[in-house]
Amino acid sequence: MEVIFKIIRQEQNSAPVVQTYLVEAESGNTILDCLNRIKWEQDGTLAFRKNCRNTICGSCAMRINGRSALACKENVGSELARLKQIAATTNRANSIPEITIAPLGNMPVIKDLVVNMSSFWNNLEAVAPYVSTKARLVPEREFLQSPQERSRLDQTGNCIMCGACYSECNAREVNPDFVGPHALAKAYRMVADSRDSDTENRLQSYNEGTKGVWGCTRCLYCDSVCPMDVAPLEQITKIKQEILANKQLVDETRSIRHRKVLVDLVKEGGWIDERQFGLQVVGNYFKDLRGLLSLAPLGLRMIIRGKFPLSFEPSEGTQQVRSLIESVQQQGTGD
Length: 335
Description:
Number of strands: 7
Oligomer: single chain
CATH topology of the largest domain: Fumarate Reductase Iron-sulfur Protein, Chain B, domain 2
CATH architecture of the largest domain: Orthogonal Bundle
């Protein structure tokens, strides 16, 4: 069958252009097979990365019809079936099916489908993705782990560093300080590793502002595109749970106070008492004078517009809400 490949081509620091190629393909051909055919038979100037062709190295990650994926894993048949579903819901259909290929997002383009992954690797290095130096100083024997201890590393150990999650990350797109889901998934591997002796410092680092776990917007795109089922968002959530269990970090950090106070106020009143929320989160229970002063302009505008709540009435069903939250909390602690 004939398939039109629309490839987004671009030179460094130049505007992208769309170039179209007509390929004779079979349903079982991978997208990488078709790109190879284009390069070998039609246009030798087309640039893209590839290596193993077997879903191991992660080199051939790119955006295929709007989502980041491995070109060696996705095939023409499944891609056209997905497009057919989309066309059915939008009442659009082409006589010759089209597949659009673009470079990964959140990274500058070097040429065509090849991107500069420096920020990807630098952010990975920022989380210290290796067993701590102190733990490695073992003079006489190697570390031993039980099967149970090793099994905690299985899921994150599957990561092939393809960049798909980083490409789709909404938080990374708007916040250049955020290290990215790939880095935090690897960070949890270190937290979960029984051989590592630097957990306390790691949690403090991953807890800083919006560059760590609190910068995640929980959009789930990273989980949806990961070709190895690493589930980066799930690993980020596990780090958050470790941080929340550390009382010292909870007391010191506004990001964690935000979450803790939110839950406490909902337990108390069924919904949020906005007066208490600002004082406890931003003002840190009157300990943060600068934070309290920062609330003054907002409070004044609310008073002028008659939107400042002078009293608070608990919602109906508060006891039921409280029971649900306490039940979830007990399950989380294993009680």
